[in-house]
From TrEMBL, chain A:
Alphabetized GO MF terms: sarcosine oxidase activity
Protein name per the record: Sarcosine oxidase subunit delta
Domain of life: Bacteria
InterPro entries: SoxD, SoxD_sf
The organism's taxonomic lineage, starting at the top: Bacteria, Bacillati, Actinomycetota, Actinomycetes, Streptosporangiales
One GO-annotated biological process of the protein: tetrahydrofolate metabolic process
Automatic annotation (TrEMBL), chain B:
Superkingdom to which the source organism belongs: Bacteria
Gene Ontology CC: cytoplasm
PROSITE patterns to which the protein is assigned, alphabetical: RHODANESE_3 (PS50206)
GO MF, one annotated term: nucleotide binding
Keywords (A to Z) from UniProt: Cytoplasm, FAD, Flavoprotein, FMN, Nucleotide-binding, Oxidoreductase
Protein name per its UniProtKB record: Sarcosine oxidase subunit beta
Species assigned in the record: Nonomuraea rhodomycinica
Family to which this protein belongs: Belongs to the SoxB family.
Biological process per Gene Ontology, one example term: tetrahydrofolate metabolic process
Enzyme nomenclature, EC number: 1.5.3.24
Cofactors demanded by this protein: FMN; FAD
Chief location category: cytoplasm
Recorded catalytic activity of this chain's protein: sarcosine + O2 + H2O = formaldehyde + glycine + H2O2; sarcosine + (6S)-5,6,7,8-tetrahydrofolate + O2 = (6R)-5,10-methylene-5,6,7,8-tetrahydrofolate + glycine + H2O2
Length: 92, 410
């Protein structure tokens, strides 16, 4: 089980959180203008790196706020967390 | 009398089922991944298409990834015609596979119950039974009393949190011994000339002018006329080296076994609603699978709270399990698609073929997908049963949504 450092509440067990998948995926500004390929990419394609991954978590059994984390999917080590709206930090 | 050295009385090593090969500089076909799908594909390439200059590259040991970690359930009771086509093809092959491979597989058609716990479950399940029948897949709807007849240890009291309101039953479904399946395919493929190269991780795909030319590996570069990916949870990593993005997410999936018990569980029971599926292996362990961990990961271990929930569900369904002890738990990395159906077919690179996205349920398809994927590689054209599972369905929108029949309990 992961120990996830919520940026508001501090380190808590993974069971308190809800996963939100890849971070920084913006809704298209003009969805109707997208081609089928572009729409498919927005809808179905997400990064799946073996390495550092920027992802969203919600502290659903705590402060109920969303935030982002940089986690290495090969080791599960969390390099850092940051609040929504903050830029992605450089992984250490 | 001088003491005998330790090991002097041990029997000789039995004959090896295949011999480990040194990589050659080139092959007609290189298969990336020596799990069930890679081995079955190699076998049918040789048997059905006469293509024998084939190497199966495996980064660890043969069948040591998800092939060694799955819960060995075999069934074909999926909802949509496309799925019924490929899974039923697989089940028919399973029914003749021991004779085909001349190898014991402990294939046991003991049936599978998919439990319904709510009115919506009941409606969906009855619909799936009717869809199965229209596709020639054996299926029945059982009421709780009939469920109890098939599997006496299931709790059917209406007083539990998720009461059993009935179940679909596929009598021809069952289990097989996963290791034996891999060994049977490997032995048969080796006899036809296929080579197996272990401890050989593919680190890159070589592409020239839009066509694959070979692979880079931890044991050197190998040229290949065609490359077939059977890399399961690591498919995204391999495909990315050729610049190919796939709609896959890799997650840990856990399973566990109990200590050896007397036979108590005569069939396979699955429940989507409470996230557990259980059978009893021939040797006596209760084999249980859980759901995937929510977060992406390439670690072959999952979180404990997933196991805890799975146990809670299992105990409610099978109160008799309260006295059983967990012997061991483990995890594998599975590649999940947005529609819970696999991707089998051509790729954007000529000569490179995709077989991935089987998520939590690839084992049951092993002979069927081996058959269809070998055809796809041999003819550079999707086998008719694989055609609906093309990569471009995510652009055309022709998804094969099997979340109902697959979901967590694939």
């Amino acid at each position: 089980m992961l120990l996830i450092p919520c940026p508001w509440c501090g380190p808590r067990e993974e069971a308190e959180f809800h996963y939100g998948g890849q971070a920084h995926v913006a809704y298209p500004e003009d969805p109707a203008a997208l081609s089928d390929e572009e729409w498919a990419r927005y809808l179905f394609f997400r990064d799946n790196p073996k390495g550092v991954f920027a992802e969203r978590w919600s502290h659903s059994a705590g402060c109920r706020r969303w935030f982002n984390a940089l986690r290495d999917t090969a080791t599960n080590r969390i390099h850092g967390v940051y609040r929504v709206g903050e830029p992605r930090p450089v992984a250490s | 009398m001088s003491p005998r050295p330790p090991g002097a009385d041990l029997p000789d090593h039995p004959d090896r089922l295949w011999s480990a090969a040194e990589p050659k500089s080139s092959y007609d076909v290189v298969i990336v991944g020596g799990g069930g799908h890679g081995l079955a594909t190699a076998y049918y390439l040789a048997r059905n298409h006469g293509i024998t200059n084939v190497a199966v590259l495996e980064r660890g040991w043969l069948a040591g990834g998800n092939m060694a970690r799955n819960t060995t359930i075999i069934r074909s009771n999926y909802l949509w015609d496309e799925s019924a086509g490929i899974y039923e093809h697989a089940l028919k092959l399973w029914e003749g596979l021991e004779e085909e491979l001349d190898y014991p597989l402990l294939f046991s058609q003991r049936g599978v119950l998919n439990l319904a716990h709510s009115l919506q479950d009941v409606r969906d399940s009855v619909r799936r039974v009717e869809a199965n029948r229209l596709n020639g897949v054996d299926a029945e709807w059982l009421d709780p009393r009939q469920v109890k007849e098939v599997c006496p240890i299931v709790e059917i009291s209406p007083d539990v949190r998720y009461p059993v309101m009935g179940a679909t039953f596929q009598p021809r479904a069952g289990i097989a011994k996963h290791d034996y399946v891999a060994w049977g395919f490997a032995r048969a493929a080796a006899a036809l000339g296929v080579e197996f190269i272990e401890n050989c991780e593919v680190t890159g795909l070589r592409v020239s002018d839009g066509r694959v030319t070979g692979v880079d590996t931890t044991r050197g570069s190998i040229a290949a006329g065609r490359v077939a990916l059977c890399a399961a949870g690591h498919t995204s990593v391999v495909a990315a080296t050729a610049g190919i993005d796939l709609p896959l997410q890799s997650h840990p999936l856990q399973a566990l076994v109990s200590e050896l018990l007397e036979p108590v569980h005569p069939t396979v029971v699955m429940s989507n609603a409470v996230h557990v599926y259980v059978s009893q292996a021939h040797k006596g362990e209760l084999v249980m699978g859980a759901g995937i961990d929510a977060a992406n990961s390439y670690r072959q271990r999952g979180a404990f709270h997933i196991i805890e929930r799975q146990m809670a569900a299992a105990l409610e369904l099978f109160p008799i399990f309260a006295r059983a002890h967990v012997l061991r738990t483990w995890g594998g990395v599975v590649d999940v698609t947005p529609d819970a159906s696999p991707i089998v077919g051509l790729s954007p690179v000529d000569g490179l073929y995709l077989n991935c996205g089987w998520g939590t349920g690839g084992f049951k398809a092993t002979p069927g997908v081996g058959w269809c994927f070998a055809h796809t590689v041999a003819h550079d054209e999707p086998h008719p049963l694989a055609a609906p599972f093309s990569l471009d369905r995510f652009v055309t929108g022709a998804l094969v949504d099997e979340h109902g029949a697959a979901a967590v309990a694939h």
